[in-house]
Amino acid sequence: MTAPSKFDLERVPRHIAIIMDGNGRWAQRRNRPRLYGHKVGVETVQEIVECAREWGVKVLTLYAFSTENWKRPEEEVGGLMSLLKAYLLSELSKMLKNSIRLTCIGNIEKLPGDVRSVLQTTMAETAGNEGLVLNLALSYGGRLELIQAVKKIAARVQDNTLDIDDIDEELIADNLYTASLPYPEPDLLIRTGGEARLSNFLLWQASYAEICFTDIMWPEFRRDAFASAISDFQNRERRYGKTSAQIKSR
Ligand code: IPE
Ligand code: IPE
Ligand code: MG
Predict the structure, then answer these.
(1) Atom of ligand 1 nearest to the CA of 34
(2) Which of 6, 174, 194, 226 is most buried (CB neighbours < 10 A)?
(3) How far, in Å, is the centroid of ligand 1 from the Cα of 144?
(4) Does the residue 40 lie in any domain?
């Protein structure tokens, strides 16, 4: 496969995070059950992971299930959990062949036991891989992540192993789920499905992410759309609060 000429392969974002939205609406517009949209969405996941690997992305974080998604009808939650388990089981050999390391962020204690066990096995089996880090956000919520970080930090203050004055950005980042990722903060955050909101995703880590909202529904977000998002990213100037002249004179 050849890389699309649309973007510069030398400047691919290191960490890309995606809010994979629009499966349900995509299916319903076709008079199919929502779960059909999730099934086709898994095919998109396979294609996007393959592109990310081929283009040299270091970390790909996929928002697969939020803390709020537990409120969906039982049947849909169950269907999503089965799809997740089937995906992990079917992809393991490909992950090993392509040196993909699977990691996850979120409150995974809430996942059903069988899913959690497959997840843990997959993470353990791929732990030594040095290629793309495929990081799944599962039962993930940015607010819950911050609550857990605050509790861990507060406990250390309480037992006198940490001074309040030593609480800084680095310490907070070190207590988030993303602490052990090679690049904890996404450079590019994509949301498919037409909504322009974060829905509790990476609230701390996305502070300076370039955000790309697209109307394309997740089941249809394939190689070319992904390449366009990267190309769009490369045409932006990341100023981090400075002026354009300061950035150019670097
Ligand atoms: C995203 O698609 C997948 C999950 C949230 C699990 P949705 O299921 O939210 O699809 P829409 O937004 O209802 O179309
Ligand atoms: C965000 O999508 C969560 C995931 C993609 C996993 P939702 O469909 O749950 O978000 P809202 O409800 O539209 O904000
Ligand atoms: Mg949605």
Answers:
(1) 8
(2) 226
(3) 20
(4) yes
**Which pLDDT belongs to residue 6?**
86
- For 89-126, how does the pLDDT look when each residue is reduced to its tens digit (9 = 90+)? 999 999 999 999 999 999 999 999 999 999 999 999 99
Would the pLDDT of 1 be above 90? no
Q: 19 in ligand 2 pocket by Cβ < 6 Å?
A: yes
Residue 2: pLDDT over 60: no
Spatial contact of 111 and 119, defined as CB atoms under 8 Å apart: yes
From residue 174, how far is each of 12, 152, 233, 239 by CA, in Å?
25, 11, 27, 24
Range of the domain at 48: 11-140+184-235
* CATH number of residue 128's parent domain: 3.40.1180.10
Atom of ligand 1 at shortest range from CA of 27:
14
From 18, 19, 21, the mutation candidate for ligand 1 (largest count of ligand atoms within 8 A of CB) is 21
- The pTM score is 0.97
Q: Which residues surround ligand 3, an ion (CB under 5 A)?
A: 21
Average pLDDT of every residue of the chain: 97
Residue of 20, 23, 220 best suited for mutating to test ligand 1, as the one with most atoms within 8 Å of CB: 23
Ligand 1 atom, smallest distance to 64 CA? 6
Considering the domain boundaries, does residue 172 fall inside one? no
Whether 246 is covered by a domain: the verdict is no
Query: Does residue 92 lie in a domain region?
Result: yes
The number of the ligand nearest the C-alpha atom of 63 reads 2
- Residue 172 confidence (pLDDT): 98
**Overall number of domains in the chain:** 1
- DSSP characters over 175-234: TSGGGGSSS-S-SEEEE-SS----TT-STTGGGG-EEEE--S-GGG--HHHHHHHHHHHH
